[in-house]
Amino acid sequence: MAFIDSNVLPPPRHIAIIMDGNGRWAKKRGLPRTAGHAAGAESFRRIANYCRTLGVEYLTVYAFSTENWRRSQEEVAGIMKLLHRYLLEALADMEKNRVRFRFFGDLSRLSPELRQLCLDAESRSEEYDVQVNFCLNYGGRDEIVRAAKAFSQDVADGKRRPGELSEALFSQYLYSADVPDPELIIRPSGEKRTSNFLLWQSAYSEYVFMNVLWPDFTPKDLDQAIEEYHRRNRRFGGT
Length: 239
Ligand code: FPP
Fold this sequence. Notes:
CATH architecture: 3-Layer(aba) Sandwich
Number of strands: 6
Oligomer: single chain
Number of domains: 1
Order of helices and strands: EHHEHHEHEHHEEH
Bound molecules: farnesyl diphosphate
Largest sheet: 6 strands, parallel
Strand order of the largest sheet: 3-4-2-1-5-6
Shape: globular
Helix content: 40-55%
């Protein structure tokens, strides 16, 4: 199912989404927050499929931030359970769906089972082209600090010289190494913040903020965001 005409309005190569508003969606219905996340996971499935139909090459989603550990134990466990279930399904359907998985974030704090599922999904999908990047225990500042540390370590080990450092080389130390920057970043739910998402990679991204809550986000909303992206005149600092 595709609504937008990809020949007239080609989608961006890389779309990133802050999946926000699950809690408010649940509250409006008198449901626990975990029900909102379950609906958010369904919304992710729907939008990931639609992105594939449109020919989007990379979809990056903010699934869990370095700050999200501050939420109640029940809510954190609920989100981890949804991810666990999703990855089990993805691994079972790997050959059919042919989606490449990458995980941006520090996986060491996840349970050993979930971490192993992430590693399996990455290694078993390496050869596929359409790519989903899950930001999991991810923070943009944390990513930059880790990259700086890794580069410094390479200098200390004699593998690199300080003068070699360039934007392109630094990018290779980020979780997103070899992934082109997102042209479009969407934040639903009415919030207008970047919330530590893809700080380095978003330097020239178009942000589209929308009022719909993530569980209610439909392919039509994605069309609207792509249309808005096309209305903007991207100059990359030129004239
Ligand atoms: C932000 O909404 C959402 C999160 C912190 C979690 C996102 C996780 C999922 C959508 C489930 C992940 C699983 C898969 C399979 C993708 P919020 O809780 O901050 O909403 P609120 O601002 O309305 O409270």
